[in-house]
Design a protein that fits this description.
By secondary structure, the protein is of the alpha/beta class. The protein folds into 2 domains: about 140 residues, Rossmann fold, CATH 3.40.50; about 120 residues, no CATH class. α1 links the parallel β1 and β2. The mean pLDDT is about 85. The longest helix is centred in the middle third of the chain and has 20 residues. The chain is globular, with a radius of gyration of 20 Å. The strands form 2 sheets. Strands 2-1-3-4-5-6 form a 6-stranded parallel sheet, sandwiched between helices. Strands 8-7-9-10-11 form a 5-stranded parallel sheet, with helices on both faces. Helices cover about 35% and strands about 15% of the residues.
Length: about 325
């Protein structure tokens, strides 16, 4: 396997993403230095500038051959001025290209209407490696050249066991997957989620079904009194079986569970109607009102992931 003298600089914003890009780079036999940006969405403007300076100093110190990892305005600016290749890895399923939750999104939206500066498009990289066709379409709508978007498939799921045949309605347990709406500046959606969870829990117990939450790692809401599935991805997936009914809004984890053969129902409620209705329509997903579930609805089975294709990572060589 080809090796190079200078290391890659790996930038990740969550643990799962970090584990995946590290395993890819190790498989390719490349050296690397990590920059963990797990708090990228927190802090005021001053803190964010300090993080930018810290990253810039690190780049000057190690002189990486390429920057690889999560998209972000910091990475985009530094690779632009340092004149080095920038390769993005996006594990998450992105659907709605008209939603601009982050500061870099808002800057790009403001400037693109006036100056059309590609510099401030955090997704404008040498290559964007994504796991599914939905995120590829998202990036194209955000101004990324289609030829620069490569689909790897869900490389991390290949090691997990298939859950088995989908159930026909005889469930024993309901698992509700939460979203980190607060982290995306969606307070109203987060409050609506809390009410929806309580309703589903009460209805599940009334039907004598066990109820568990699988809490998003960045969802910091108080869920005291609820039984919870493991936060660790490997432990969680090992516990899901064909007797479980998974309830979720649009989450990457729900699509991963579909790929593994789990029983997944997508839901909606008033506070996320504007956020998700067009996305559900685009993906041809029948979303059920969380307040009108019979817990015997049709299971969504469409797989949005392509075949696993590790060869796309050769652009790192």
């Amino acid at each position: 396997m080809k090796k190079t003298g200078r290391p890659l600089l790996l930038i990740s914003t969550n643990k799962e993403e970090r584990n995946e890009i590290v395993s890819v780079v190790k498989e390719l036999g490349l050296g690397y230095v990590e920059y963990l940006d797990f708090e990228s969405n927190k802090g005021n403007a001053f803190i964010k500038v300090l993080r930018l300076i810290k990253l810039f100093v690190l780049v000057l110190k190690i002189k990486p051959q390429k920057v690889f990892g999560a998209p972000g305005l910091k990475s985009k600016l530094i690779t632009f001025f340092a004149r080095m290749p920038y390769i993005i890895y996006m594990r998450t399923v992105y659907v709605n290209s008209e939603h601009y939750p982050f500061i870099s999104d808002k800057i790009y939206k403001f400037l693109s209407k006036r100056l059309r500066l590609r510099l401030f498009n955090a997704y404008n990289a040498d290559f964007c490696i994504v796991t599914n066709y939905v995120t590829k379409n998202y990036l194209i709508k955000r101004g990324v050249d289609e030829s620069n978007v490569l689909i790897s498939g869900p490389i991390w799921l290949d090691k997990y066991k298939r859950i088995g045949n989908r159930n026909t309605g005889k469930f024993k347990r309901v698992i509700y997957i939460t979203q980190a709406f607060y982290a995306h500046n969606l307070a109203e959606a987060q409050e609506g989620q809390k009410r929806a969870i309580k309703h589903v829990r009460d209805e599940s117990e009334r039907k004598r079904l066990e109820f568990y939450l699988r809490v998003h790692p960045r969802d910091k809401s108080n869920y005291n009194g609820y039984k919870k599935m493991p936060e660790d991805m490997e432990e969680f997936l090992a516990e899901v079986n064909s007797d479980d009914l998974i309830i979720s809004t649009l989450s990457t984890l729900a699509f991963e569970l579909i790929w593994l053969g789990a029983n997944v129902i997508f839901v909606k409620y008033d506070e996320i109607e504007d956020l998700y209705s067009r996305s559900y329509e685009f993906l041809n997903i029948k979303a059920y009102s969380v307040y009108e579930l019979s817990y015997e609805e049709s299971i969504h089975s469409e797989n949005i992931f392509g075949k696993i294709n590790f060869d796309v990572f050769n652009v790192l060589l």
